[in-house]
Amino acid sequence: MLAVVSIGMLSAVRAYVTGESLYSKGQKDAQLHLLRYARSRSNEDYRLFSQALAVPLGDRSAREALQRDPPDLQAAREGFLAGGNHSDDIDGMVRLFRWFHSVPFMARPIATWTEGDQLIAQMLALVERAHEHIEAGRADDREVEAMAAQASLLNQRMTGLERQFSDQLGVASRQTKRMLLALNLALAAVLALTSVHFLRQSLRTRAAAAAEVRRRQESLQLLLDSAAEGLYGVDTEGRCTFINRSALVMLGYARESELVGRRIHDLIHHSHADGRAYPAGECRMYQAMRQVEEVHVADEVFWRRDGTAFQVEYWSHPVMQDGRVSGAVATFFDVTERLRTQAALRESEQRLSRLIDTVADGVIAVDGEERIVLFNRAAERAFGTMAEQALGQPIGSYFANSDRPRLRALMAGLAGQEGGSSAHNGLHELVGRRASGEQFPMEASLSRLSMGPNVLTTVVLRDISAHLAIREEREAHEALEASSRAKTDFLSRMSHELRTPLNAVLGFAQLLRMAKNPPLAQAQLNQVQHIEHAGHHLLALVNDVLDLSRVESGRLSLSLEGVALHAVADEAISMVDMLAKDAEVRIRRAFAQRPAVEREAWVVADRVRLRQVLVNLLGNAVKYNRRGGGVALDFEPKGGGVDCTIRDDGGGMTAEQLAHLFEPFNRLGAERTGVEGTGIGLVLSRHLVELMHGRLDIDSLVGVGTVATVRLQRADDAAAIAPAPFAPSVHAQLDGESLNVLYAEDNEVNVELMRQMVSFRPAVKLRVALNGAEAFIQASKDPPDLMLVDMHLGDMTGLELAWALRRNPATARVRLVAVSADALPEQIRAAMDRGFEGYLTKPIDLRQLLQVLDGHAVV
Questions:
Q1: What's the half-sphere exposure (Cβ side, CA atoms, 13 Å) at 280?
Q2: Under 8 Å CB-to-CB from 111, ≥6 apart: which residues?
Q3: Which of 71-85, 158-172, 336-350, 390-404: highest mean pLDDT?
Q4: What is the mean pLDDT of residues 480-507?
Q5: Does domain 557-713 have CATH number 3.30.565.10?
């Protein structure tokens, strides 16, 4: 009976040793998958982490079930199965725990086991909280990195506990074997004494006693063979006296007879791992006999029968007989798998250390006394010091004096948080202090981790010097953009508010001037011309202000091409011709007298903007001239460019006036002369010329006059001249069927103006809608051939109306032309992108409107 119990106990100890390896492997695998999850944040890595951690969690549930009163044996068995233990070993593990859990040799590893389970629970809590934040999209990089750093610290603590548990199990195994061996030897001695007694009592029982002794010897052999570790004995000559089944299996032998009676050192222990000879005289196993003491060796190999070696850990005990050493007994384990696991653990720890060092953010961990215990590579770079110099130092020495109280307060606040073993208090901006004394801004996340009686605080930090500089630059840029947008919005509103009344002023002036029935008297025509002249002057002012704003903000784009300078000059002269006649100033086309120069004067420019510059310069030359004076416009090719000069006979300017000539809104005293002007024309002209990669220079002498020179790059004279725009006859008639037009406009004055302008085309049937909703309803009931749409309709914008029309099958193909006081290029582009085919800006030019009507009638 005792033999059977001994066999069971030894098997249970062996099962706990195996279970410890599985527990350790599960924990390390979980740590590895945790770090991968911290980097990838994938559900697969989180699943692998949970799967690996199930092994130590199963063992924990088994221990807790056995410690209940009364023990829950079924729950304990299920826990051990979840921990990967073999089902045949579980009953023995349960009995060993229940019978010996209070005995010191088992109580110590159970206490270590319990402490390890607490660390496993902390690791699980860390990951579950991080996983919850990741799944909810609330996790930031610093929180995940802090979780990984805390898990690494737990892993370091766990590694020490696993080694301690393994050593304690080894002690438990040896003490269990000694106890069982002592019990069996005592039993054998009792049996021997009993046998002698019975022999003396009666020779008739000799045969039975001998049989009983043989049976006991067989039981002892059975006990030896049931042990998981290898067992063999040697005499003083080193000859094998017995060997158990586990030893035969590990050494590759089939029968005891192959080893018993032979010098076992020469068979299994003859060489070192590297192949060097290992003489018996140097063998540490025989030290037990020589020095009469137990010997423990963990760094040698045994050799199998097939010539292969395996790592072993063995103990050698002297055997005493009559006060003398009669031999020794050796026990050994094949530790190849354990060493492989330990190597894997060391490699895992090194990987963890390397992973922490590869984290982009600095990671610092401090103990309960605020002394640094972890300082990764990123922290070394941030603070300009090595980890060896930082370890053991107070963390406050790496922060600015002004921030140290706040740092302590943050750390103290963590201790007061609820959350069990861990706590986190978000991101904070602090000021760090490098080893050189230089201070730098940082963003830091603090977290607290409890490991039994020990408490660690982890600081994950990032140098945000560059980030702050970028943020300041971005804020300054945003402020400039906001100012620019405000300026643009103001100018857009001003343009709209001025163009709307100008639409009525100039529109009705055009109608009065073209009236035929009855025609206006000459005096009335002169009055209308004055109205038109003042209106166009105000419109030019609005346009110049808008252009100057767009140039200064960099939003004015030009289309550069080869332009015939003489053609643009003719257009500009024709546009200021009326002004020149009124001022009695003659404009002379000097370039026309030199046909060769005229042919060569091709420049790279934006045709419209070049004409705008020449009109401005010619207008100034006329306005500031003397009555009866002259203006000469000429060209002169020079090198790779062409100079366009405008020379006047005016009063000229002083040197002081020339110094302030290009200041916006500075009219140099001309405001006191009665000459109209705004003081921005020259400023805008210079900007436009520079955008065309040219240069504008002004020279002047008092009493002589002024010369304005525009120098532009010379272009290929093969470039085509853009055709002049088609100018329809005001009194032309539409051919064919009438044109059905719907006008959406909420201003009744503009509506009346449109009615009178459209009256020049009797074939046009004009309907009016005074808001967007009414326009949509009319267009849906009776789709027009053409819709003229204002961009501000009271209840909606013109763009919103266009969107609704395009989505309605009944009106999706209606042709749209915008009629608006919004004149900015981006506003026009927005309308064209939304499906408008044309865009008429207010004040409406009658000829342009009629051209639109005629064009759609032809289509």
A1: 12
A2: none
A3: 390-404
A4: 69
A5: yes
What is the per-residue pLDDT for 647?
93
Strand 602-605 relative to strand 630-638: parallel, antiparallel, unpaired? unpaired
Q: Enter the tokens of residue 298.
A: 């963990």
Q: What is the SS3 assignment for 807?
A: helix
Beta strand ranges found along 547-629 (DSSP E): 561-564, 586-589, 602-605
Which of 121-160 are b and which e, b meaning 16 or more Cβ less than 10 Å from the residue's Cβ? ebbbebbebbbebbeeeebeebbbbbbbbbbbbbbebbbe
Cβ atoms of residues 165 and 109 within 8 Å: yes
585: left (phi over 0), alpha (psi -120 to 50) or beta: beta
The residue among 774, 768, 728, 772 whose CA lies nearest residue 750 is 768
Q: Per-residue DSSP letters for 358-425?
A: H-SSEEEEE-TTSBEEEE-HHHHHHHTS-HHHHTTSBGGGGB-GGGHHHHHHHHHHHHTS-STTEEEE
The rounded distance, in Å, linking the Cα atoms of 240 and 264 is 6
**Taking the CB of residue 53, how many other CB atoms lie within 10 A of it?**
21
Q: Mean pLDDT, the chain, as a whole number? A: 81
Q: From 778, 790, 764, 759, select the one nearest 855 (Cα to Cα).
A: 764
Please answer whether residues 470 and 476 qualify as being in contact, where contact means their C-beta atoms are separated by less than 8 angstroms.
Answer: no
Q: Please count the residues of the chain.
A: 859
**Tens digits of per-residue pLDDT, 198-243?**
445 544 555 554 555 466 555 555 556 667 789 999 999 999 999 9
Adjacent-strand bridge partners of 233 = 242, 329
Confidence of residue 687 (pLDDT cuts 50, 70, 90): confident
Residue 728 has pLDDT above 60, yes or no: no
- Which CATH architecture best describes the domain 467-516+726-859? 3-Layer(aba) Sandwich (3.40)
Fold classification of 360-463 (topology level): Beta-Lactamase (3.30.450)
By the 8 A CB rule, do 227 and 10 touch? yes
Give the pLDDT score at 113: 80
